Amino acid sequence: xxxxxxxxxxxxxxxxxxxxxxxxxxxxxxxxxxxxxxxxxxxxxxxxxxxxxxxxxxxxxxxxxxxxxxxxxxxxxxxxxxxxxxxxxxxxxxxxxxxxxxxxxxxxxxxxxxxxxxxxxxxxxxxxxxxxxxxxxxxxxxxxxxxxxxxxxxxxxxxxxxxxxxxxxxxxxxxxxxxxxxxxxxxxxxxxxxxxxxxxxxxxxxxxxxxxxxxxxxxxxxxxxxx
Length: 227
Known about the structure:
Elements: E1 2-7, E2 13-14, E3 20-27, E4 46-52, E5 59-64, E6 66-74, E7 81-88, E8 95-100, E9 120-126, E10 131-138, E11 144-148, E12 151-154, H1 171-189, H2 201-211, E13 225-226
Parallel strand pairs: 2-8
Antiparallel strand pairs: 1-3, 1-9, 3-4, 5-8, 6-7, 6-13, 9-12, 10-11
C-alpha cells in the first residue's frame, strides 16, 4: 500500500490562507480493511486530507510525513497474535518544502503536476491473511477487531514507485475539500478571535459558490497521518 503527500507540492508558492489543506493519496487502500473494520470506498486512489492553520502567515514551510501503523506480532503462547504499534519516518523520502506569499498562486487542487516534481510518499507491505488475536482490540468509534495482519515498511530506495505524481485529485473531491476549507474559514473568521488574514466576505461567498455543497468523510484506517 502506498501513501503519497500530493498537496501542497514541493517547491511551490501559494497565497496565504487561514486554512491550508494537506492532501494524501492512498493506493491499494483496500489492504487497510484487514487492520481496521472501516467502510472504505471503491475509489483508488483514496484521498485523505486535513486542514491546518500553521501556514496562514507568509513564510517558508517544511512538511515531513510520519506514518504510524499496527501489525501482528506472535504472542508468547505461539497460537495467537497481538497488536504492536510501530512508527517509522523516512524523512528523505517524505518531505515537502513550500512557501506562502502575497503574490503566490491560489490553491488549485486539480492543477497538473510537472514531470520534474517528485512526490513524497511511503509504502507498506500488507499481507491479506488475517490472523486471530489473543483478545479483541478496540478500534476507533467503538469498533472491535479480533484479527490482524502482518505489515512491514519498505525503504524508499527499495520501492518501485509507480509514478506517484500521476495521481490526480478529481474535480468532485477537490470541490469537497475546498468546501470544507470555506466552511472552517467562514466559521473561524466570524468568531471573536479572527485571524489577521481573513478574506473579505465577498471572496468567501464566491469560493463557496464555486465549491458547492459537496462534502467528504475520510477514514484514516490503520495509520495516523501526522504533519
